[in-house]
């Protein structure tokens, strides 16, 4: 029975691990629901995305390494490493909600709009969001090294930056969707695939892997659904 539980949820060593996994799974479920609603242009999708990011932030706090309690530097770095990506992610959801509020309503909670044609300039804001998210998330690993008084030069910065950037493509995609850009759904797919890889490498269980695959599938369906929407003219898009 224990082997089945470990296969589904990964190895857990105590109540905090169980609570953190429960919050992580609930957050992934909310992201799935959010993507389904955003594909329909529903305002509620933004609220669910923000709630999902908050749950994931709480889950990360529950994984606080006890060894950092004796290191002020490590403690501050860990706090910043959780707070910065959380602020970026929740801020992206809030930005999307406020952007949708400016659009005409198709019904009580649904918006109607025309898509913006693709432009390379539109990639700048999502890229900036993913980069800030990545830089913030790197502080969590740096805090552990600081707690051990290990040299920070030994940290694989490039690998951490790439991993954090790929994870940051999820909030980055929300910024793209807020700008009415259909291609932003593809960023969700990339972020979901990266999450599947990370979850597999960390042996966090098949339930999360399934949910991340579901996120990628919902993003693909969202990309298809938005393909039926009209597109602004080049002048109107600006």
Structural topology:
Elements: H1 2-9, H2 15-39, H3 44-62, H4 72-101, H5 124-147, H6 157-167, H7 169-178, H8 184-201, H9 206-226
Helix pairs in contact: 2-3, 2-9, 3-4, 4-5, 4-7, 5-6, 5-7, 7-8, 8-9
Q: Could you characterize the architecture of this molecule?
A:
The protein has 238 residues and is mainly alpha-helical. It has nine helices and no strands. The chain has helices at 2-9, 15-39, 44-62, 72-101, 124-147, 157-167, 169-178, 184-201, 206-226. Helix 2 packs antiparallel against helix 3, helix 2 (15-39) packs parallel to helix 9 (206-226) and helix 4 (72-101) packs antiparallel against helix 5 (124-147). The N and C termini lie far apart (58 Å).
Search tags:
globular, mainly alpha, 70% helix, 238 residues
Biggest sheet overview:
none
**Oligomeric description of these chains:** single chain
The share of residues in extended strands comes to under 5%
Order of helices and strands: HHHHHHHHH
Pick out the low-confidence regions: 234-238
On the 0 to 100 scale, the average pLDDT is 89
Question: What is the CA-atom radius of gyration, in angstroms?
Answer: 19 Å
């Amino acid at each position: 029975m224990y082997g089945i539980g470990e296969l589904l949820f990964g190895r857990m060593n105590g109540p905090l691990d169980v609570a953190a996994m429960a919050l992580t799974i609930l957050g992934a479920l909310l992201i799935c629901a959010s993507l389904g609603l955003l594909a329909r242009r529903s305002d509620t999708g933004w609220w669910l995305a923000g709630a999902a990011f908050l749950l994931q932030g709480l889950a990360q706090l529950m994984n606080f390494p006890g060894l950092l309690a004796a290191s002020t530097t490590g403690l501050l770095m860990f706090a910043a490493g959780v707070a910065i990506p959380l602020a970026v992610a929740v801020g992206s959801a809030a930005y999307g909600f406020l952007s949708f509020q400016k659009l005409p309503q198709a019904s009580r909670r649904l918006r109607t709009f025309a898509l913006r044609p693709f432009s390379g300039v539109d990639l700048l804001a999502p890229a900036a969001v993913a980069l800030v998210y990545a830089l913030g998330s790197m502080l969590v690993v740096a805090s552990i090294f600081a707690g051990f008084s290990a040299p920070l030069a030994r940290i694989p910065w490039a690998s951490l930056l790439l991993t954090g950037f790929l994870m940051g493509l999820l909030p980055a995609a929300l910024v793209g969707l807020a700008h009415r850009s259909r291609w932003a759904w593809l960023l969700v797919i990339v972020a979901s695939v990266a999450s599947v890889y990370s979850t597999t490498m960390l042996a966090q269980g098949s339930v999360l892997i399934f949910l991340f695959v579901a996120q990628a599938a919902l993003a693909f369906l969202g990309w298809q659904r938005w393909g039926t929407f009209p597109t602004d003219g080049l002048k109107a898009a600006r």
